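Tutorial handout. Part one gives the primary structure; part two gives the three-dimensional structure as tokens.
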Amino acid sequence: MSVQTQQITTPQSNTPLGKTVLVIGATGQQGGAVASALRQAGWPVRALVRDPHSAKAEALAASGVALVQGDLSDNASLRRAMVGAHGVFSVQPSSGQGAAYGVSDEDEIRYGKAVADIALESGVRHLVYTSVNAAGPEKTGMGHFDSKSEIEAYIRTLAIDSTIVRPAGFMELLMLPGMGLDQGIYTSFLGWDQKGQFIAAHDIGKIVATIFRNADAFIGQTIEIAGDETTGRKLQESLSRAAGKTIHYHRFPDALLQENRFLGRLVELIDDGRLAGNADIDALKETFGPLLSFDAWLAGPGKPLFEAALNSADAPLALR
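Part two.
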């Protein structure tokens, strides 16, 4: 899907001072980046948190974010959190994040619809929902992607001003342990010369903050977002430069992809283009300003994750 966007100006005076944005998932990667970007732009920010005494919640409070205790399964807490809110950033945990979250695809859909319904009920002026670049009318066969397509479609039926962003794969996810960096290799989904798009969580925050600040330019839009495009070859070059030694890149072997249908289906979606990404990165940069390349991310906000992966003793996924 092509990016639907336009070049705009983003003066600070457009920020509606005193108008609060509720950020769902503020203790996570996307929500945390959005909360930070909004605070830096001068917005009052509120966060729905399960445990206000957790380290991440206390860090949010220290940065000036107001905390409301509750969770997505508790509609009463959602209503409390949205009282007087001008905007809502909506992201839900999904089954694709692993069993530790204990969230089913049905849960994600229910949570996403509840956030949208209560935003409408509460008089929220602008709802921004974050989805995935593989979302769309054609089912992917991956529950944690198709759930987002269903939430998107539901939001579009509601009489609320909304914007949907569809991020590419996170650069942060490229640094999961077990990809083999500690052994001088890196194993992932892309073919040697196959293109794939990625985005840093930091830039999701930057983009969403701009969308809230310039709502009239983005209401009703679905925007696919990415910050850089790479290949297996370029990943090897980037990782080798950052490591100061040769890192050998490999795509997941066919035998593993046949054995592990989850990984296999992800690769199929990359091969057919839906998960590889189709964002117009140049247009995004014109609209939202500079976005992090993978090299810049490795040298900046991604450096701690990269160094941790280099020193990880976990066996590569391809060898498990």
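Part three, for discussion. The longest strand covers residues 162-167. The longest helix spans residues 105-121.
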